Every structure is written in C-alpha cells, then in structure tokens.
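Fold it.
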Amino acid sequence: MPVTYTSTASQTADLVSSLKSRLNIPDMPVGGFVGAASAASAAAPPPPEEEEAAPAAQEKTLFTLTLKSFDAAAKPKIIKEIKSMLGLSLVDSKKFVESAPKTMKEGVPKEESQKIIETLKGLGGEVTME
C-alpha cells in the first residue's frame, strides 16, 4: 500500500523556504525565465527597415560556423579537432560530429572562421560560414 503525506499550504511553503536556504537557491520571479525573455523582447527596438539591412549585410564581421558533413575515413581526425577546438570531452566530441550538420561556433571573426574552415577541410570535413 503506497504511503501518502498530507500537508497544508503553509507547511509546504515552509519546507520550500528551508530547502532554498539550505541549498542556496535564489528566489525566482513568478513565471521563471519566460517573463525575463518576454520583457527583453518587448524592450528590443523595432527591426530595421530593408534599406538599412542591406549595408549591414555587406559589413558582416562575425560568422556562425556549421559542421555540415565529413569523410567517414577522416572521422577520428575530425573528432580530435572538434575536441580541442570546442573543449568537449572525447565522448561529447564524437556525439557532436556524428550529429552533423550542427552549429560549431557563433560570433566568430572572419579570419578565425577561415582558419577553422581550412583546418577541417584539410582533415576531410565540410564547414559552412554564415
């Protein structure tokens, strides 16, 4: 027979507050992270018009690198490079490579992006810069 516990709302609140203090858990606003995200999006400026977007696209300096595919024979080399590049464990690097296409890095300068692409291309991987 299962054991059930009954408690009042005040007992539950006391338990929650004592656990928060013992485990050093900060108080969250009502709604958690959802409220913070919606407040940030509400405060964001309106999107720029198409005329302003065209020059910004030409001056793009930060890129997102995506591992698209790789040669099966080069898989161990790609895994080692991803491990050193992203600081992942060997198991996580293997899972990362096997789940291609996957975003590797975001906000990478153009020079560094080109070096990473050349390195992985030389090992047998296909990386795109967006």
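The CA atoms of residues 50 and 56 lie 10 Å apart.
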